[in-house]
Amino acid sequence: MAVNSSSTAAALALIADDMREVDGVIARRLDSAVPLVGQVSRYIISAGGKRLRPALLLLMCGALGYRGDQRYNLAAVVEFIHTATLLHDDVVDESTLRRGRATANETFGNPASVLVGDFLYSRAFQMMVDAQDMRVMQILSDATNVIAEGEVLQLMNMHDASLDEAGYLRVIRSKTAKLFEASARLGAVLARSSPEIEQACADYGQALGTAFQVIDDVLDYAGDAGEMGKNLGDDLREGKATLPLIAAMQRGTASQCATIRRAIETGAVEELDHIVAIVRDTGALEVTRQAAAAEAQRAVEAARKLPANQHAEGLLQLAAQLLERRS
After folding, report:
1. Residue 97, phi-psi category: left (phi > 0), alpha (psi -120 to 50), beta (remainder)
2. Which tens digit of pLDDT belongs to each residue from 171-187?
3. What are the domain boundaries of the chain?
4. How large is the C-alpha radius of gyration of the chain?
5. For a tag on the chain, would you pick the N or C end, based on fewer CB atoms within 10 A?
6. Can you give the pTM of this predicted structure?
């Protein structure tokens, strides 16, 4: 996932030096006596992306005045957890392309991807202990468990064309938004903030992560494969009833609804072009963007509860600029 806007770049520039420190921690903690572990880990971590989860933790620390080195360690932890989920996701989804290049499972095989994902999870838990804070351990262990539940829930929902918006949101708030929420909450915990501020941080992270995934699902039907670095219609091929498809079935004709339902239930992509046209013609993308806008506004309202400073302004910019995302 990438965000392209000058305001977002300005927000991330605030933590550029911090991110270099995090990169150093990542490089050191990927060290292993087993060469393939480091090879696969570095392959996926070097694939690109804005590293928004560690960036979110660092921006929260900046907004709340925490300057300790533990922020670098925990930012690396959330990146390792995220990377582990990507390795496992691509195996489960049988994906071949991520961020414009072959997935790790395509390059190294499924067994290596699964096992190196396990290594990254376990290395993340080793690093959590360095914080010597049971609250940090609780947040990260709970988040990792919820993410795993979200993955299983999504698996159960595969090829289920009856999934509604509430069911869809339940999956992405577990699978995607939970690590955003944990990253933001950790900034407050490190800064020893009040319960009210901690909750505002968590609300911000959950809302931002939800909006981010909703927009990602829009791009599966609004973008093109070359720009997005993924195969257009991947979610449909995997039998995932994402919000653009749910909205299209709610707004389309009986015939249009039947076409989408059949594709979700079978994973067939022969009518992909027709389905993309239905999604666009029914206004489903606008409905989905409105859902993302509501989440982005929720994030903005949460960020306004933070102390007024450059880092808090950066958090506001991240939420406000989210809907300009095109890739």
Report:
1. beta
2. 999 999 999 999 999 99
3. 6-315
4. 19
5. C
6. 0.92
